[in-house]
Design brief:
single chain; elongated; Transposase_6_like; Insertion element IS402-like domain-containing protein; mainly alpha
């Protein structure tokens, strides 16, 4: 997983950009974001009954031109 976030631009209320980046990497390695995604998907399926027989998902990650500016 990769973000276009500039870690140094994060408000200091959340800690330094370096700390936020380190925690992001730790959470990614621990599978936190995948667990959140699966939990939300399961919740949505229970509430809305996803039609899995025809559902399809796709995604792509690309670098923002000019560093996201």
């Amino acid at each position: 997983m990769k973000t276009g976030c500039q870690w140094r631009a994060i408000p200091n209320d959340f800690g330094s950009g370096q700390t936020c980046h380190r925690r992001f990497q730790e959470w990614e390695r621990a599978g936190v974001f995948k667990k959140i995604y699966k939990s939300i998907l399961k919740y949505y399926d229970v509430k809305n009954k996803i039609a899995w027989d025809w559902a399809s998902m796709d995604s792509a990650m690309v670098k923002a031109p000019k560093g996201g500016v």
